[in-house]
Amino acid sequence: MPRLLACTLALSAAALPAAAETLEVSTTVGFESRYLFRGVQFAETSFQPSINLGYGNFYGTAWLNLPIGDDDLVVTPGGEELDLVVGYSAPISELVSFDVGLTYYTFPDLASGFFDLYEEDGDGMGANTLEPFFGLSFDIPLSPSIYVYHDFMFDTTTFQANGSYSIPLAEKTSFDLGGYIGYVIDDTGGTDYVYGTASADISYAISDNGSFYAGVRYGGSDLPGGSVIDDSIAGTTKSSAVWWGLGFSASF
């Protein structure tokens, strides 16, 4: 199955948009030496551009994973991926906000049409899946949030907790820490598992609206047999790995 996964996507949940009734646009152009989603590696070196739109409390995101080279195809076919997210987020109180939305995962290099959905009984025409989500974010130290996702095609339910912390190093430089831990429940009786990722980045603001970042990540899962590529030629896997990433983010 192409995705017992993001990015988040990854990217799966978008950042809370501003409440002003104006169209806000931001973009990120990233490069990662591995692409893992929910502890499962789907590609090795990858280019990851995204664009985010916000209008009032509504938002939309398009995120693309483009593998660089063909090594990832040995272990994880379907590394090329386009995720589309729409959602609505709003404050409940001064400290709590909610976020609700829908992610559509598509896999262009699996020969699926854009509207071809996967079905576990074999009647589906493609690999694409739909996943609604709901989350709560808290405006307290470490910026914690909790989310629940349900993939209707694979019939899996995922719970994930996130956190982040930024340490100013200089006027334009910060040390940014982030991490999440999650639990995937296979409602069809398959393997349930725990996954997680931690990241550390140095960010440098080149302007009020743009910044570069670079750093390291560590992540994986407790899936039997491993879920991270160890040797793509031999087709072997392991439970976790360290990788690096860098990119540029800007808002308009």
Tell me what you see in this structure:
Strands 1-4-5-6-7-8-9-10-11-12-13-16 form a twelve-stranded antiparallel β-barrel. A two-stranded antiparallel ribbon has the order 2-3. The longest helix is centred in the N-terminal third of the chain and has 4 residues, at 72-75. The N and C termini lie far apart (38 Å). The chain has one helix at residues 72-75; strands at residues 23-32, 35-37, 40-43, 46-55, 58-67, 81-91, 96-106, 129-138, 145-151, 156-168, 173-186, 193-205, 210-221, 228-231, 236-238, 240-251. It has one helix and 16 strands. It is mainly beta.
Number of strands: 16
Radius of gyration: 18 Å
Helix content range of the residues, please?
Answer: under 10%
Distance between the amino and carboxyl termini: 38 Å
**How many DSSP helices?**
1
For the biggest sheet, the summary is: 12 strands, antiparallel, barrel
The overall pLDDT, averaged over residues, is 87
**Low-pLDDT residue spans:** 1-19, 72-77
Task: Describe the secondary-structure layout.
Layout: E1 23-32, E2 35-37, E3 40-43, E4 46-55, E5 58-67, H1 72-75, E6 81-91, E7 96-106, E8 129-138, E9 145-151, E10 156-168, E11 173-186, E12 193-205, E13 210-221, E14 228-231, E15 236-238, E16 240-251
Antiparallel strand pairs: 1-4, 1-16, 2-3, 4-5, 5-6, 6-7, 7-8, 8-9, 9-10, 10-11, 11-12, 12-13, 13-16, 14-15
